[in-house]
Design brief:
alpha/beta; 17 helices; Spore Coat Polysaccharide Biosynthesis Protein SpsA, Chain A
Length: 605
Amino acid sequence: METSDGNSAEVIHEADVSVTKSVESIDADTRLVTLSMRSMADEPVMVSITDSVPETHALTSLAGDGAGTDERTTDERTGYSDGSLAVEQVARPGDHATLGYLVCGPFETELPTPTVRSVVPVTDDAQLLAGTTVEWIGTDSTSTLDIESSSIPAVSDEALPLLHLSDAGPPAAASAMADAAVGVVLTATNEDAAYRTALRASRRGHPVIATYAGLDDDAEALDTLADLGASVLSPPRQRASQSELHRALSQHARERGIPGIVLQTRDCPRIDYDRTALAFERADYDVVAIPEQWRETDDGPAVVVAIPAYNAAGSIGDVVERADAFADEVLVIDDGSRDETGTRAREAGATVVVHDRNRGYGGALKTAFREAAARDAAHLVVIDADGQHDPADIPLLVETQSRDDADVVIGSRYVGESRTKIPFVRSLGLSVINDLTNLSLGNLRPSGWVQDTQSGYRAYSRRAVRSLAADPTIGDNMGASTDILYHAHRNRLSVAEVGTTISYDVENSSTQGSLSHGLDLVRNIVWTVEYGRPLLIVGVPGAVTTLLGVSVTLLLVAQFVEMGTLYPIQLGTAILFGIGGLLLCITALMMHVLNGHPSLRRLER
């Protein structure tokens, strides 16, 4: 009997045995089928049940996510379609046994009613000790399927044995991640994906820990997730950020003595357990899950990680190894290093592009853009070679880019609950540079500002990579980070930010001193202000200064006429203000006219 919420249940009675078939919707074309059998006989009996699967449907493993995301082709699933499950179960008086499996296919087609083939008294001890056996009786073959216990509870709160299909792939191997938990943040928009994550993780033997954002404490989705075996935690506070919720999940896993945790991203895509296990081995305790959709396609690699490097032999090997788990290719730009940077990077598995001379950070970035464009990479992620950037945050940047369709995603030290501890002098300098950069971009409202204009931890879309690779105006020095934002502004590339942590307690954290870096950035901003938005940045202050000088001058002259009192110092200062402001206005107009000159237009192109 189908219900309004897409679930159904029907009961069949036969010889003191009742069989209930319950169907629960998981997503648009995937349902969890539960066969529940209760014996009311006075003695042990062997119950044989047949449950048919129509040719329009197919069994799918609980290690998968249903038809929509199962990587197997239809032909590979035909062995579990257009046939029947034959279940034999010994039932003692009062026993209540359950069996569950996933089936995918058209939602509008109702699944057949199971058939109780026989109820036979058990006559010997061997039969009494027999467990549950399941056979697949297909059109061409008959094969025995294994079942295994799971932490997923049935409606009766008893253990629900789950089918283990032979082509579903093995559970998590004996790797460092075998006993790790899977952490999920449930939201109003990812309920189905969170359910699938919990089912799949439980099938692989991973405990599931969940918390929630934007939901009431008594939301039905929380009960459903708990029914699927997850431990549900209350969020640390209302409107907690994603990073706060991840920390709460990680802390709970530590308190339970779990050796580590895999944290799902906000959209809960299907996890690539093999690649995530590789990343987990190189993580301290927790790691962000790598989705299967990152798998390399015929069009080009999904994720290329580029690392500009100059004399970074001491750290480059470790950075490459940690980034490799999150990338289809790690690309190191050896910017004329005098040490073994290139050799160490190759030994760690990176593709190395060598500059014959040092061209600066911006020069290395331009090479990275050209190389990524040549590979037609869907995402280019740039990280530093000194270990300041944590490669485990790469999935967060890429997911934000995919979900928000952002051309440039910045790993920001100032967004959300970032735990970056910035030295005071550097923090002060960055604050000034951030303000100047946003003003020069014409962002007059702080709500629309780029919070971290100087972060080198960035992800670029295919469109952004192609556009930046063709731009000759990007500088060679550290100011290239600002140049890229100006390029994005001119070419209407969208920019987003996601919170990340940058570590400053690493050896050789920068090849350029803080003072030199700051002066270089200020020079770059001043040049862009003069030649980019002179009317806004130079003309407006000039007009205000002129107005102030003229107003004070007229006020002092009027006072002299009426009272005969003259203040020469104040009058001279006001006149100088007026003249200075007028000169700024004239300069702004000249710069604005020069910006329209054909030679400068060609330079911008």
